[in-house]
């Protein structure tokens, strides 16, 4: 296995003893799990749930957002606890494996969805989203072990951009099957369930390099098992929550994440629904739009990773938030496809950049021996946003009797508020606190 010096300039990019094969293995998890978010949450299953599973009722969009809210509420409670447990036992990789198996299995079970399966579909959606979120938290906690302190933006960007490529590949395969099935007269309730099986298979197969190549470096900090371990995990988590008052900038950034991620999560969960309901896109048009957006998101994640390490974490995230505000304004004004396509591609650039940049910034602000735990807090912030943002959008459409343009405009307020909160975060001070 080669060392990090085999990569041009890698001496300052990868941590000592980390090979590029291992980083590739880690990044492949982003490649793998993006098949779930792209196909299930963003492009195909969400619109299918609203139109077919929920029968297109006036409460259908709210039901979709409520199911995701339940899953994210579970993640808010369980995520930090599992993070504390992983740090104590030094077994992030084992938890990652369990969450992956759970997400693959429950995603495959979504193939049972149909016109008369509302409660089964909701249950499988809640569980698959829960397992996905646990995996996302845990794999992020490996980032500070793999990247040098001045290069976490680059390495995070490599993984996030590779993730969009994985999402594109999964979506492309699903789109090819959808077009084939539709050409033969099949209805959505025939071909959409098959795309769930394709997605589950892609997730499982693409995650194998992660488990074969990624090393567990965290030391085991607690040897006891059973009740003693449970008590220590709970005590450690409470201690961390208490200690966050000493990490002023981390605390401020987590609050900022809750606010601006509320807008991002609304866009992710409801982009396909907005395209179909407000812009009258067909399913095929919507999928093509998502494909193009994934390409721009991959470009944004990769390019802004280098920008982040050059101009700083706060400045990079601020640029992306300005881009999100512009995107919302264009989407709200759009009456035809051209302006909406422009807005969607701006959203893609900002989506990849802002998500990757936040992950890298949390890594900088996290103490070495509590990485999984602090990334659990990051996950808690993102999951709270995943409740607030989509529910705000769903309630807005419900109360306004289906006015998706108004709901989009309200969503833009989260990006403005996030930009204001970001101004109070000092990256250098936060990094010093993490090292103390």
Offer a quick outline of the entry.
The chain has 436 residues and is mainly alpha-helical.
- Tally of individual helices: 17
Distance between the termini: 34 Å
Q: Which term fits the overall shape? A: globular
Q: How many separate domains make up the residues?
A: 1
The structure class reads mainly alpha
What portion of the residues fall into strands of 2 or more residues? under 5%
Largest sheet: none
Radius of gyration, in angstroms, nearest whole number? 21 Å
CATH class: Mainly Alpha
Runs in which pLDDT lies below 50 for 5 or more consecutive residues are 1-11
Task: Tell me roughly what share of residues is in helical segments.
Answer: over 70%
CATH architecture: Up-down Bundle
Mean pLDDT: 85
CATH topology: Growth Hormone, Chain: A
Number of strands: 0
SSE topology string: HHHHHHHHHHHHHHHHH
Instruction: Write out the CATH superfamily name.
Output: MFS general substrate transporter like domains
């Amino acid at each position: 296995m080669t060392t990090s010096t085999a990569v041009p300039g890698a001496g300052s990019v990868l941590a000592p003893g980390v090979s590029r094969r291992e980083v590739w293995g880690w990044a492949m998890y982003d490649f793998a799990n993006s098949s779930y978010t792209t196909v299930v949450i963003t492009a195909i299953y969400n619109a299918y749930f609203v139109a077919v599973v929920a029968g297109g009722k006036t409460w259908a969009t709210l039901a979709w957002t409520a199911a995701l809210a339940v899953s994210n509420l579970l993640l808010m409670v369980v995520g930090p606890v599992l993070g504390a447990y992983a740090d104590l036992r030094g077994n992030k990789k084992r938890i990652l494996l369990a969450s992956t198996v759970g997400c693959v299995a429950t995603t495959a079970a979504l193939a049972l969805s149909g016109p008369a399966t509302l409660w089964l579909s909701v249950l499988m959606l809640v569980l698959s989203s829960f397992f996905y979120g646990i995996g996302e938290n845990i794999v992020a906690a490996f980032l500070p072990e793999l990247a040098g302190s001045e290069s976490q933006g680059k390495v995070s960007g490599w993984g996030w951009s590779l993730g969009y490529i994985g999402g594109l590949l999964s979506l492309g395969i699903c789109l090819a099957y959808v077009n084939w099935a539709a050409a033969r007269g099949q209805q959505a309730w025939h071909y959409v369930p098959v795309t769930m099986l394709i997605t589950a298979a892609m997730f499982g197969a693409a995650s194998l390099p992660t488990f074969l190549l990624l090393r567990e470096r965290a030391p085991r900090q607690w040897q006891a098992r059973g009740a003693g371990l449970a008590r220590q995990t709970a005590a450690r988590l409470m201690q961390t929550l208490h200690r966050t008052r000493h990490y002023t900038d981390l605390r401020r950034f987590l609050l900022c994440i809750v606010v601006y991620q509320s807008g991002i999560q609304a866009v992710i969960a409801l982009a396909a629904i907005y395209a179909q309901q407000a812009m009258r896109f067909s399913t095929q048009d919507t999928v093509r739009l998502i494909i193009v957006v994934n390409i721009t998101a991959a470009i944004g994640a990769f390019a802004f990773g280098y920008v982040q390490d050059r101009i700083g974490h706060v400045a990079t995230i601020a640029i992306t938030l300005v881009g999100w505000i512009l995107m919302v304004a264009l989407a709200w004004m759009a009456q035809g496809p051209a302006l909406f396509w422009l807005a969607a591609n701006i959203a893609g650039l900002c989506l990849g950049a802002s998500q990757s940049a936040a992950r890298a910034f949390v890594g900088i602000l996290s103490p070495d021996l509590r990485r999984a735990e602090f990334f659990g807090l990051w996950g808690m912030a993102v999951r709270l946003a995943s409740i607030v943002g989509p529910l705000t959008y769903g309630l807005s459409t419900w109360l306004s009797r289906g006015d998706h343009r108004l709901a989009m405009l309200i969503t833009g307020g989260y990006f403005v508020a996030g930009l204001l909160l970001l101004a109070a975060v000092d990256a250098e001070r936060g990094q010093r606190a993490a090292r103390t």
